[in-house]
Write a structure and sequence with these properties.
heterodimer, A: seven-stranded mixed sheet, about 25% helix, globular, B: about 180 residues, 2 strands, binds flavin-adenine dinucleotide, binds iron/sulfur cluster
Chain lengths: ~525, ~180
C-alpha cells in the first residue's frame, strides 16, 4: 500500500455519517481520504439472499458484552463500504422536539445542545438529497418540515390486514417515512417491492451511502481506501490538535496518515473504542475524555417483533423490509409512574423464510416436522411488525476497553448495558399491545419475540457543557476540535425513532459548519 | 417453469468451489453431499454429528448438504462468513464454536443414551434437542446450549429454505434482483 501525502480531512468509516462528511467536505474543496476497515463494495455485490446479507455484517473483532441486556452489536454493525447503512431498511422518521429537550421538559434524560428548529432545515435538505417518500399530512405525529419530495410507497395485503387491528383499537396509521423511492428520482429507479432491502438494495431505490453521498464525495475528488483499519487518532505533543490517524492494512502493516482534521465515523462502539485507544500522556483517559463521559450514556432501542398467522394470504414476501405502515400513537413519554419513553410501530415488515427476522425464527422453539409445517403455512399467512421503544441515557451504560486484544493489538471493546425499569415496563406494555393489535386484526395466532436491540447510540454525546459531554453542538471534541465525530454516538437521547435520518441531518449541519469555519479549525 | 431441485447449481447461492480429482468444480452443498466431497475443517465425527442433529432439527438438511455448507464457511475470515452464528456476538474463530458444541453433543448423547447422535431413536433425539433448546443439559462444557440450538437449527433452515430452490419448494416467488452467485 502506498503511503499517502497529508490530506485536509481523513474520514474513518464509509457508512451513513462518514459518507455525508466526505461529500460535503470534498465539495467544499478539501482533499478527503476515507479509510474503511472492510471491503470495497459496489451495488452489484448486493445479492438477493438473506444468507449473503450476513456478509455485510461485522463479526470481528467481537465486543465483550456485560450487563443484563445486549445491544445486539453484530446485528447492528456493518463492515465494508456503506457500513450498516448499506443494508438498512430506510425507515427515516424525524426526532420530535421533545426528544431533544428531555431534561427540561420531563426532568429525565438529557438536553441536546440545539433544538428541533435548528435541525429542521438539515432534515429538509437530506430528504431532498436522497429522495424520501411519505405523506407529511397523513403522518400526523410528524414535526414541522418540508413535505416529502415523493409520494408514499404503496400498501399491499400485509399492511392492509394489520391496519385492521390498529383501526379496531382506535390507533392511527400512516405511510412510512422512507428513504426509498416511490418514483424515479435523479436518474435512480423506483422501488419494485420485492423486499430484499435487508440484503442491500442494488438498484439504488434505497438511499444507502453508495447511492448519494459517497458518489458525490468521489465526484468531488475524495479518495476511498478499503481494508484500512484505524486504531488511533494521533495528536500533537501538546494534545491540542489531531495530526492524523494510525491504521493497519490487511497484511498487518502499520501506517500513519497525516491530516488537518479527522472525522471519526466508525459507528458507536468503534468510535468510542478508537478514542479510548488514542490516549496519550496529555489525554490519559482517552482522547476527548476530560469530562469523563467518553463511552458513557450508551443507548439501544429495546424492540419487540410481533408476529401472527392469518386465515388469508398476507404476501409477506412483498413490499419493503422496513414495513408498509407506520404509527406513533403512544409516542408521548410520560405514560405512567412506572413507564417512561416514546414508542413507534413499523407495520407489515417484508419477511423471507430464513434469517434472524425470518418466518422460521419467529417460532424458534419449533423443530423437526413441526417446523416444516409451520414454515410451509407461515410463508403465506404470516404477519409481522416491530414496536420500537425509547431508553433513557444513563452514565452507567458504557463502552470501555477490555483486556483482550484484536489482531492488530488494539484492545477490544467491553460494553456494559442495563435497561432501566422504565424501559423494561415500556417494552412489556408494547409487546402486550402488539399482540392485542394482531388479535384485533383477526390473527388466528399472535405472539411476540423476546427483547431485541435496535440502533446503538451515545458514547460520544454532544452537549453545551464541556464538563458533561464529549462533543460540542457541531460534534467536534470539546478537547480537540479538529476531531469531529459522526453517527448516532453523538446523540444525547435515543427517542424511539430510527437513528439514521437524524445522523445524516446532524452530520450535514456539522460538516457545513466545519467547511465554513475551516480557518478557525485548523488555524 | 417451476424450479426443480436438480437445476440449481447456479441459482442456489450456496454453491461451493471444490477440487475433485484435480479439477475445480462448482457444486451446491447438496451436490457436494451427493458426491461425497471431502471435508476440510470438520472431522468425520463432527460431520456425522452435525448432519444427524440438523436432520432432526429440520428433516432434509442432511441431503441439502448442511455439513458441506458449514465446513466451507468455517474456512473464511469471520467478516466474510455467511453463517447465521455471525448475527450473535460469538468470538471467532467459528470453528472453535462448532468443534466445542459438537463435542459436547457427542458426549451428551453417549452419557445419556449410550449411543451416537446418528443412532438415536426419535424420542431420544427429541429429548436431546429439547434439552439444548431449553438450556437444561447436564454437565455441559460448551457454548450456551440454546445458542448451539439456534445456530444449528438455522444452518438447517438456510440450506433447506434459504435458497432459490427452497423458495421454489415453498411455492413462493424469489424475486431476485441479483441471483446469489455460484461460488462462495
Ligand atoms: C439490518 C439493519 C436495518 C436497519 N434499518 C434502519 C432503518 O430502517 N432506519 C434507520 O434509521 N436505521 C436503520 N439501521 C441502522 C443504521 O444502519 C445505522 O444507524 C447507521 O448505519 C449508523 O451510521 P454510522 O455512520 O454511525 O455507522 P455505519 O453506517 O455502520 O458506518 C460505519 C463504518 O465504519 C467502518 N469502521 C468501523 N470501525 C472502523 C475502523 N476501526 N477503521 C475504519 N473503518 C471502520 C465500518 O466498517 C462501517 O463501514 C439499520 C441497521 C441494520 C443493521
Ligand atoms: S424492495 Fe425496493 S428498496 Fe427494497 S431491495 Fe427491492 S427495490 Fe430495493
Amino acid at each position: 500500500m502506498t503511503q499517502r501525502a497529508k490530506v485536509d480531512v481523513v474520514v474513518v468509516g464509509s457508512g451513513a455519517a462518514g459518507s455525508v462528511y466526505a461529500a460535503v467536505l470534498a465539495e467544499a474543496g478539501k482533499s478527503v481520504l476515507v479509510l474503511e476497515k472492510g471491503a470495497d463494495r459496489k451495488l452489484s455485490d448486493l445479492y438477493s439472499s438473506q444468507i449473503w446479507a450476513r456478509r455485510l455484517k461485522s463479526a470481528a473483532p467481537h465486543v465483550v458484552e456485560e450487563g443484563k441486556d445486549s445491544i445486539w452489536y453484530n446485528f447492528n454493525a456493518g463492515h465494508g463500504y456503506g457500513g450498516a447503512a448499506m443494508h438498512h431498511y430506510g425507515v427515516w422518521p424525524r426526532y420530535h422536539p421533545e426528544d431533544m429537550l428531555e431534561q427540561t421538559r420531563y426532568g429525565k434524560g438529557l438536553d441536546w445542545p440545539f433544538d428541533y428548529e435548528q435541525l429542521r432545515p438539515w432534515y429538509d435538505q437530506v430528504q431532498e438529497d436522497v429522495g424520501m417518500s411519505g405523506d407529511a399530512d397523513k403522518e400526523i405525529w410528524r414535526p414541522p418540515g418540508a413535505p416529502y419530495p415523493l409520494p408514499p410507497l404503496p400498501v399491499f395485503e400485509h399492511g392492509r390486514i394489520l391496519a385492521r387491528g390498529f383501526a379496531a383499537l382506535d390507533l392511527r396509521t400512516s405511510p412510512v417515512p422512507m428513504a426509498i423511492l416511490s418514483r424515479e428520482y435523479k436518474g435512480r429507479p423506483a422501488c419494485i417491492y420485492d423486499s430484499w432491502c435487508d440484503a442491500g438494495c442494488p438498484t439504488g431505490a434505497l438511499a444507502n451511502p453508495l447511492v448519494e453521498y459517497l458518489p458525490r464525495a468521489v465526484q468531488a475528488g475524495a479518495v476511498m481506501q478499503p481494508h484500512s483499519y484505524v486504531t488511533r487518532v494521533l495528536t500533537d505533543r501538546a494534545g491540542k490538535q489531531a495530526t492524523g490517524v494510525e491504521y493497519y492494512d490487511n497484511d498487518g502493516v502499520r501506517h500513519e496518515q497525516a491530516a488537518d482534521a479527522v472525522v471519526v465515523a466508525a459507528f458507536t462502539v468503534e468510535n468510542c473504542r478508537i478514542l479510548l485507544n488514542s490516549a496519550t500522556g496529555v489525554h490519559s483517559d482517552g482522547l476527548g475524555n476530560s469530562s469523563g463521559t467518553l463511552g458513557h450514556y450508551l443507548m439501544s432501542h429495546p424492540a419487540v417483533s410481533v408476529f401472527g398467522l392469518f386465515k388469508e394470504e398476507t404476501h409477506c414476501y412483498y413490499g419493503v423490509t422496513g414495513g408498509q405502515l407506520f404509527s406513533q400513537d403512544g409516542f408521548e413519554k410520560d405514560k405512567s409512574k412506572d413507564i417512561f419513553g416514546s414508542r413507534q410501530w413499523e407495520i407489515g415488515l417484508g419477511t423471507k423464510p430464513n434469517d434472524l427476522l425470518g418466518v422460521a425464527m419467529s417460532r424458534a422453539d419449533l423443530f423437526g416436522n413441526d417446523l416444516h409445517e409451520f414454515v410451509r403455512h407461515g410463508v403465506r399467512h404470516f404477519g409481522a411488525m416491530v414496536g420500537v421503544c425509547e431508553c433513557l441515557p444513563h452514565a452507567a451504560n458504557r463502552i470501555e476497553l477490555a483486556d483482550g486484544k484484536d489482531r492488530f493489538g488494539m484492545p477490544l471493546a467491553r460494553v456494559n448495558f442495563n435497561l432501566d425499569d422504565y424501559a423494561r415496563n415500556l417494552w412489556q406494555q408494547t409487546a402486550d399491545l402488539g399482540v392485542q393489535i394482531f388479535q384485533a386484526a383477526g390473527a388466528t395466532e399472535a405472539w411476540h419475540s423476546p427483547p431485541g436491540g435496535q440502533h446503538i447510540m451515545g458514547g460520544t454525546i454532544m452537549g453545551a457543557d464541556r464538563t458533561a459531554s464529549v462533543t460540542n453542538e457541531y460534534a467536534q471534541l470539546h478537547d480537540v476540535p479538529n476531531v469531529i465525530i459522526g453517527g448516532p454516538s453523538v446523540f444525547p437521547t435515543s427517542s424511539s425513532v430510527n437513528s439514521t435520518f437524524t445522523a445524516h441531518a446532524v452530520a450535514l449541519r456539522s460538516a457545513r459548519h466545519i467547511a465554513e469555519h475551516w480557518g478557525g479549525l485548523v488555524g | 417453469m417451476p424450479l426443480t431441485r436438480r437445476n440449481f447449481v447456479k441459482q442456489s447461492g450456496l454453491a461451493l468451489s471444490v477440487t475433485v480429482a484435480g479439477k475445480t468444480l462448482c457444486l451446491t452443498p447438496r451436490q457436494a453431499y451427493a458426491q461425497g466431497v471431502a471435508f476440510t475443517n470438520l472431522s468425520q465425527v463432527e460431520v456425522d454429528t452435525l448432519e444427524a442433529i440438523c436432520e432432526r432439527l429440520l428433516p432434509g438438511a442432511r441431503e441439502e448438504g448442511v455439513a458441506q455448507f458449514v465446513d466451507k464457511q468455517l474456512a473464511l475470515d469471520p467478516n466474510d462468513s455467511l453463517l447465521f452464528l455471525k448475527c450473535f456476538n460469538v468470538e471467532p474463530p467459528y470453528l472453535a464454536f462448532y468443534r466445542s458444541a459438537l463435542a459436547e453433543i457427542v458426549r451428551l448423547s453417549e452419557a445419556t443414551y449410550s449411543r451416537a447422535v446418528a443412532d438415536l431413536d426419535e424420542a431420544s433425539a427429541t429429548r436431546l434437542i429439547e434439552s439444548l433448546r431449553d438450556g437444561t443439559t447436564e454437565d455441559w462444557n460448551g457454548p450456551p446450549p440454546p445458542l448451539v440450538y439456534h445456530a444449528l437449527r438455522n444452518d438447517a433452515v438456510d440450506v433447506v429454505y434459504g435458497t432459490m430452490e427452497g423458495f421454489a419448494d415453498l411455492g413462493i416467488p424469489f424475486l431476485a434482483h441479483i441471483e446469489p452467485p455460484a461460488v462462495t
